[in-house]
UniProtKB/TrEMBL annotation, chain A:
Domain of life: Eukaryota
Record key words, sorted: Cell cycle, Cytoplasm, DNA damage, DNA repair, Isopeptide bond, Nucleus, Phosphoprotein, Ubl conjugation, Ubl conjugation pathway
SMART domains referenced in this protein's UniProt entry, alphabetically: CULLIN (SM00182), Cullin_Nedd8 (SM00884)
All copies of domain Cullin family profile, residue ranges: 448-678
Primary gene name: Cul4b
UniProt xrefs under Pfam families: Cullin, Cullin_AB, Cullin_Nedd8
Protein family: Belongs to the cullin family.
Origin species: Armadillidium nasatum
Name listed for the protein in its UniProt record: Cullin-4B
Molecular function as annotated in GO: ubiquitin protein ligase binding
Cited PROSITE patterns: CULLIN_1 (PS01256), CULLIN_2 (PS50069)
A single cellular component GO annotation: Cul4B-RING E3 ubiquitin ligase complex
Record pathway: Protein modification; protein ubiquitination
From TrEMBL, chain B:
GO molecular function: cullin family protein binding; ubiquitin protein ligase activity; zinc ion binding
Name by which UniProt lists this protein: Anaphase-promoting complex subunit 11
Natural source organism: Armadillidium nasatum
The organism's place on the tree of life at top rank: Eukaryota
Domain RING-type: 34-77
One GO cellular component term noted in the UniProt record for this chain: anaphase-promoting complex
Pfam families with a match to the protein in the record: zf-ANAPC11
Length: 805, 84
């Protein structure tokens, strides 16, 4: 309403304070009739004004132009205060003037035309008069007629505007500005006209169906005559698209112009029809082209960054000028053209590289972008899985890399874990894919990874491994357990672990009992008590042995107080079932050692009847005191090494044959023992002729000049050959155990089913057996069971087996 | 060369002295435990009868408990007496 006053440079304002002023001046001079009349009018005007304000509040402008035309009024209202007084007289004049129908219409028409042409209103025509005219026409003539007249008037004006556009030859931007100006102007005038014809809007329009409000009528006419004109529509939409394309190309454009025009289109309700489709098509084309071009030109991380930038830009575009309803389609369009179309190429080209180089930031981006497209994460996940499989296989499969395999596996697992938690939101499916992939590739190579993991643990648990604190070791063991979990052939691990554990225990090499126990409890937790019972038995044996040795020493003291024993003996007594099998071997030992051994045997058997003791010389070790000319030394050696060295107490030179006959040590073991004494780091003996390997006829001479910085010297056994042999033995034992397990499983199934076809039996076996087996092996076992009459082939159908009870 | 042994850590394994490889009752090797036990060795010892037959202690005890009248060795049907 305030805008109306402004519009025709008006005239009258009634603020409360001023009315009061007038009142007071009236009261001062009550005698003047003219004044009292004026007063009446004033009051009336005030009343009407308040009424108008009321109406304004409830006015129903279905679509308010958002251009802010309305908001300007209040501020300026004070500026027109001065004119207030001059109006009073005019009004008197007009009440009488406008009472005739045609005159009223002429008045209104004049006002409307003035508004349309942005002219000032005639000085003597106030808004109040105009209201009155409208009222007159409504009451004295039909409101429909008035509405139709107004419509005609508006239509004529709008039609006249069209000329400008059709003839306009300016460039697009200028044209757009023109349209925009026309539009803002239209909004502006329609609002003012609407205010004048408020009574029409409130009465006739509301009460009559199918008649739109004056504002809506304006919009409709505008649409009909201007924008539905093909030339205007096309130029306008093309211009908008061009501006947006310019902006996408990196130029700055007049966003407010675009915004205003797009609002215009939405107000006219043709946004979706004329603009949105074209816009989306243009977007699709642009990004389809851009996607294809950039996929060629840029590497994947750059491309991804670009896509993200584009998405941000489009989002901004929606915030700034596009209609919010376009958002979903627009973003979908960008995602489709830039990501979905290229998802295969993107991952094939870039994922391996990103993972290899551990580029977490780019991977996070990749994840967030792929989470936008349908099925994107599934695809990413499967590619991730495939990457782990191929990369993991290269770690596992190459025998030359066996030495570093476990460490690499640990590092690889760490890296992948990090990526999953940092970049892939720790999403369940990725965690699962990671696990699945690890399990898959680690079992690509049978048995070896299990063996190497056991060896790796051995290396970490061995004494002298000072690189890690207890906490670090514990964490490391936890990580190893994760790898262990993936392995199918856990029995292979157990066999090698047991072998290494036995060495650690018997040679006293274990770094820390706590660490051993913690590893054991981890294994127990993972595989159940059955898996570790034998390992625990080994620890128990070690403790029992300690007790027995205590008792033995007390016994010795009681028995022979007078005879002092020359050496200290301690024995580890092993229960056969727990420990790995050892080769039994008889060797010649000095008589005092043999005697001592017998005393102990007697003592032990006295305590435990019904048992037999078997000495295992291969596992024994000694500490020797040796007096060299260069000073005394203490040598830590194996029993065999000790036996050989003891020979040199009597003579300085021995040939290989002599040593063999005197010690009765098995040939290959003896050669290895001699090699360690004469060709190792600490050479207590000298070999003649000098060479690396021990050959027939070699002579060994006591090394008088032996010297070493250390007092205590450990002479390592040479192990190379032993390990490969031992390894084979261990593996063979594992395979034997597996045969029993296969037999047991077959019999279990047969007992339950009685009759079963071959294929079903095989598949059930695969389910039951926890280690990898080949069908050929299973067939062999089935044959063997048939031979042993556990089952038979069905006479009619050779592919079916019957259980034989 | 003067060398003396200061200390010696020997290793010995023990096994049962039995007249058979397997227990006559449970048919498990004596090296292993009876079918009710998990671990061989001290947890599942062997016992000998005066008839010189031996069994896992758990196996023979179960057998003897199931005998109503006379307690006989399951192998030779002689009266079962533990060897001292």
């Amino acid at each position: 309403m305030s805008s109306v006053r402004l519009g025709y440079g008006s005239d009258r304002l009634v603020s409360n304070s001023q009315t009061k002023k007038r009142h007071s001046s009236d009261e001062e001079n009550p005698s003047s009739p003219l004044q009292s009349r004026n007063k009446k009018i004033c009051l009336e005007a005030q009343k009407e004004d308040i009424e108008n304000m009321d109406r304004q509040k409830h006015a129903n402008f279905s679509t308010m132009a958002p251009n802010g035309v309305r908001s300007m009024g209040l501020g300026k209202s004070k500026g027109s205060e001065k004119k207030v007084l001059s109006i009073k007289n005019l009004k008197v004049h007009q009440v009488a003037a406008v009472d005739h129908v045609s005159e009223s219409w002429a008045c209104l028409k004049e006002a409307v035309v003035a508004i349309q042409e942005s002219r000032k209103l005639r000085e003597n025509l106030t808004q109040e008069d105009l209201y009155r005219c409208v009222d007159n026409l409504i009451t004295q003539r039909s409101p429909a007629q008035l509405y139709a007249d107004l419509r005609d008037l508006t239509e004529t004006h709008i039609k006249s505007q069209l000329e400008n556009f059709i003839n306009s030859s300016g460039d697009r931007l200028i044209f757009l500005r023109q349209v925009n100006d026309c539009w803002t102007h239209h909004c502006h005038q329609m609002k003012m006209v609407g205010n004048i014809f408020l009574a029409l809007d409130r009465g006739y329009v509301l009460q009559t169906a199918h008649v739109s409000s004056i504002w809506d009528m304006g919009l409709e006419l505008f649409r009909q005559h201007i924008l539905e004109e093909v030339i205007v529509e096309n130029r306008c939409v093309d211009g908008l698209l061009m501006m947006i394309e310019q902006e996408r190309g990196g130029e700055t454009i007049d966003r407010s112009l675009v915004k205003s025009l797009l609002r215009m289109l939405s107000s006219l309700q043709i946004y979706h029809k004329v603009f949105e489709n074209k816009f989306l098509m243009a977007t699709e084309q642009l990004y389809s082209r851009e996607g294809q071009r950039l996929m060629q030109e840029r590497d994947v991380p750059q491309y991804l960054q670009h896509v993200e930038k584009r998405l941000n830009e489009e989002n901004n575009r929606i915030l700034h000028y596009l209609d919010p309803s376009t958002k979903r389609q627009l973003i979908y369009c960008v995602e489709k053209q830039m990501l979905n179309e290229h998802k295969t190429a993107l991952l094939q080209k870039g994922l391996d590289q990103l993972l290899d180089q551990n580029r977490r930031k780019d991977l996070s981006l990749l994840y967030s972008l792929f989470s936008r497209i349908k099925g994107g994460l599934d695809y990413l996940c499967s590619q991730f899985n495939a990457y782990i499989k191929t990369h993991g296989k290269t770690i596992v499969i190459n025998p030359e890399k066996d030495r570093v395999m476990v460490q690499e596996l640990l590092d690889f697992k760490d890296k992948m874990d990090g990526i999953v938690s940092d970049c892939f939101c720790n999403s369940d499916r990725f965690v699962l894919a990671l696990k699945e992939a690890f399990e898959h590739f680690i079992n690509q190579r049978l048995n070896k990874p299990a063996e190497l993991i056991a060896k790796f643990v051995d290396g970490k648990l061995k004494a002298g491994n000072k690189e890690a604190t207890e906490d670090e070791l514990e964490r490391l063991l936890d990580k190893i357990m994760v790898l262990f979990r993936f392995i199918h052939g856990k029995d292979v691990f157990e066999a090698f672990y047991k072998k290494d554990l036995s060495k650690r225990l018997l040679l006293g090499k274990s770094a820390s009992v706590d660490a051993e126990k913690s590893m054991l409890s981890k294994l127990k937790q993972e595989c159940g008590p059955g898996f570790t019972s034998k390992l625990e038995g080994m620890f128990k044996d070690m403790e029992l042995s300690k007790d027995i040795m205590l008792a033995f020493k007390q016994n010795l003291q009681n028995m022979s107080k007078n005879s002092t024993l020359p050496l200290e003996l301690s024995v580890n007594i092993l229960t056969m079932g727990y420990w790995p099998n050892y080769q039994i071997m008889e060797v010649e030992m000095p008589s005092d050692m043999v005697q001592y051994q017998q005393i102990f045997t007697k003592f032990y058997l006295g305590k435990h009847s019904g048992r037999k003791l078997q000495w295992q010389p291969t596992l024994g070790h000694c500490v020797l005191k040796a007096a060299f000319p260069n000073g005394p030394k203490e040598l830590q050696v194996s029993l065999f090494q000790a036996l050989v060295l003891l020979l040199f107490n009597t003579t300085d030179v021995f040939s290989l044959d002599e040593i063999t006959s005197r010690t009765n040590i098995e040939d290959t073991l003896l050669r290895r023992t001699l090699q360690s004494l004469a060709c190792g780091k600490a050479r207590v003996l000298i070999k003649n002729p000098k060479s690396k390997d021990v050959n027939d006829g070699d002579k060994f001479i006591y090394n008088k000049d032996f010297s070493n910085q250390l007092f205590r010297i450990k002479i390592n056994q040479i192990q190379m050959k032993e390990t490969s042999e031992e390894q084979q033995q261990t593996e063979e034992r594992v395979f034997q155990d597996r045969q029993y397990q296969i037999d047991a499983a077959i019999v279990r199934i047969m007992k339950m089913r009685k009759i079963i076809p071959h294929n079903l039996l095989i598949s059930e076996l695969f389910d039951q057996l926890k280690f990898p087996v080949k069908p050929a092996d299973l067939k062999k076992r089935i044959e063997s069971l048939i031979d042993r009459d556990y089952m038979e082939r069905d006479k009619d159908n050779p592919n079916t087996y019957n259980y034989v009870a | 060369m003067k060398i003396k042994i200061k200390s010696w850590t020997g290793v010995a394994t023990w096994r049962w002295i039995a007249n058979d490889d397997n227990c006559g009752i449970c048919r498990m090797p004596f090296e292993n435990c009876c079918s009710d036990c998990k671990l061989p060795g001290d947890d599942c010892p062997l016992v000998w009868g005066q008839c010189s037959h031996c069994f896992h202690i758990h196996c023979i005890m179960k057998w003897l408990q199931s005998q109503q009248l006379q307690q006989q060795c399951p192998m030779c049907r002689q009266e079962w007496k533990f060897k001292e």
